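STRUCTURE:
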């Protein structure tokens, strides 16, 4: 019988740097890899947080090869196990996976190899690992370590919760001298604490690598009238022929979106837990092995996906938290080359997620935590700061403004929206807190519709007080009020908006409100293009050409001179002096001094 697996201090068979070079073909470890490997080889326990593509697998694969015995890797998905085993076998490593796809004879043979020391690494699902029969088998083997991959699955209220992971906390009782390492690409503070507690890693070291994925460009926009058309424009403009993942919240939306993308000529496949497992496996296989395939999926897809050249991850529905968002977007650009994380969202997304939290069986304390997580996600969506900074701050990591997200590339201005907020909130109150944004906007803009007249809403004090903004501007304002928690959406009814207690200080004038200006200005731009006289559109294009010429002279992007929003204001207002020009949004003193005369001359020449 092989030596007792409980015996401490397994002998070391090879040095880690030799294994790294000879087996994996790398000259040196990256980041904290060397420290993690040395710690595990010495017999210590650890929690490892490392971004996707950061080399987590090496952190347990090399110790499994260096220590005497077989490394047991806990993995939640058969597909992930098979990918890892195939890759290791290509390197000449004796690896296997124990799962339901094997015949009884094949399983028996792998267990014989484990007992005989003829295998290096075995992947196994948590539910199989924790059966009494398999634990008894392990007691007859020399064990190098336990590696618990995708360890965030232990978090009961996390985005990928697997109840079987909770049982893994019993391992140290059964195998007290076998080192354990839990690994994940994402875990905020509460989830990290939960992993340590549930897996009983309190005595182990925590290795937290930076969370930054500098090759990913983060972009977020409000949902328009057709989110799927927004998605199609994004793919056509930036990712024609690329592999990508599109996340939807429901199975029905997955099927619908995949079908629609196929009708547009894209190679799109559905993936969700309700699909026949043969179809699901075939779709995943095509995604992994072919180029340019787009997978439309629920969160059932993606955990541990090793495809390195996923060039974009798109969300047409809000994920449940920033933690989930980070995990899902991390599936893009694993090869370190440029990739996009693109997302659109709207008021209904916010309402649906809040309803899911309230409808769960969680404790009130846990619900408060989930609401805070959702608030953090909405703060990320609405931020005027660098998105990467906001995302990393959530994980207690930090960076300088990245220059590779939408808010850095097209800086977002904010404006004092206190009066606009008061108008919107007052309109909600005076109409009875039961109407959706469309009707409320009609009231604010003084629309003369049959419905407004029949309800008597044209007699309200709020009828017609919002003509200073257009419909799209008001939609943006209502969306931001919902995101700020000042309005709630009744999803069980017809999307009616009602006030929350938090709005009182705004209505009383005790709290100021800042709104993002980008959504408003984009709406103004579209309205100018649709309704302005041809000469306004012509002037706008003339100013864009002037801006491009100035940018080329300096070798800078055009937007650093003036944004389109500012040029649209110039086309509409037609300032005739520096003082008038200085009143427009986006024209500061430095730009006024540097470019003011040139743009005034451009306007003058156009007017001829």
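SEQUENCE:
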């Amino acid at each position: 019988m092989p030596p007792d697996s409980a015996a401490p201090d397994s002998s070391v068979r090879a040095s880690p740097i030799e294994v790294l070079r000879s087996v994996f073909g790398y000259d040196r470890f990256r980041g904290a890899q060397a420290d993690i490997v040395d710690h595990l080889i010495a017999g210590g326990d650890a929690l490892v947080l490392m971004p996707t593509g950061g080399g987590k697998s090496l952190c347990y694969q090399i110790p499994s090869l260096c220590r005497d015995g077989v490394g047991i890797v806990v993995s939640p998905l058969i597909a992930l196990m098979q990918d890892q085993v195939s890759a290791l076998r290509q390197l000449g490593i004796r690896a296997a996976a124990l799962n339901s796809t094997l015949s009884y004879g094949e399983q028996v043979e792998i267990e014989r190899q484990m007992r005989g020391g003829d295998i290096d690494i075995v992947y196994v699902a948590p539910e199989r690992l924790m059966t009494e029969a398999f634990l008894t088998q392990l007691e007859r083997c020399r064990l190098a370590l336990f590696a618990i991959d995708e360890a965030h699955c232990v978090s009961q209220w996390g985005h990928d919760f697997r109840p079987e992971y909770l049982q893994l906390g019993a391992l140290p009782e059964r195998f007290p001298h076998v080192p354990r390492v839990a690994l994940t690409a994402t875990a905020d503070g509460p989830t990290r604490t939960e992993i340590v507690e549930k897996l009983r890693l309190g005595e182990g070291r925590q290795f937290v690598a930076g969370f930054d994925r500098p090759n990913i460009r983060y972009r977020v926009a409000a949902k328009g009238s057709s989110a799927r058309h927004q998605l199609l424009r994004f793919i056509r403009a930036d990712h024609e022929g690329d592999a990508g993942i599109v996340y939807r919240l429901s199975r029905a939306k997955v099927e619908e979106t995949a079908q629609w993308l196929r009708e547009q000529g894209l190679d799109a496949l559905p993936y969700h837990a309700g699909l026949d497992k043969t179809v699901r496996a075939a779709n995943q296989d095509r995604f992994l092995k072919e180029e340019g395939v787009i997978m439309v999926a629920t969160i059932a897809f993606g955990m541990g996906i090793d495809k390195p050249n996923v060039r974009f991850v798109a969300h047409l529905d809000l994920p449940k938290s920033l933690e989930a968002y980070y995990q899902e977007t991390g599936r893009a650009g694993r090869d370190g080359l440029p990739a996009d994380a693109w997302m659109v969202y709207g008021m209904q997304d916010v309402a649906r997620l809040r309803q899911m939290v309230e409808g769960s069986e969680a404790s009130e304390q846990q619900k408060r935590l989930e609401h805070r997580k959702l608030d953090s996600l909405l703060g990320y969506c609405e931020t005027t700061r660098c998105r990467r900074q906001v995302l990393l701050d959530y994980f207690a990591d930090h960076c300088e403004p990245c220059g590779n997200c939408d808010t850095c590339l097209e800086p977002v201005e904010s404006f004092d929206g206190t009066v606009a907020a008061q108008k919107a909130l007052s309109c909600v109150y005076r109409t009875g807190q039961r109407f959706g944004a469309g009707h409320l906007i009609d009231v604010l803009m003084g629309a003369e519709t049959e419905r407004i007249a029949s309800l008597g809403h044209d007699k309200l004090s709020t009828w017609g007080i919002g003509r200073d903004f257009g419909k799209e501007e008001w939609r943006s304002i209502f969306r931001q009020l919902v995101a700020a928690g000042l309005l709630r959406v009744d999803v069980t009814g017809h999307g009616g908006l009602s006030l929350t207690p938090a709005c009182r200080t705004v209505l009383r004038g005790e709290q100021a409100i800042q709104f993002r200006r980008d959504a408003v200005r984009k709406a103004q731009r579209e309205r100018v293009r649709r309704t302005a006289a041809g000469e306004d559109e012509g002037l706008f294009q003339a100013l864009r050409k002037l801006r491009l010429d100035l940018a080329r002279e300096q070798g800078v992007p055009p937007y650093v001179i003036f944004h389109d929003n500012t040029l649209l204001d110039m086309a509409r207002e037609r300032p005739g002096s520096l003082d008038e020009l200085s009143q427009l949004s986006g024209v500061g003193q430095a730009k006024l001094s540097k470019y003011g005369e040139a743009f005034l001359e451009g306007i003058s020449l156009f007017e001829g």
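REMARK: Residues 534-554 form the longest helix (21 residues).
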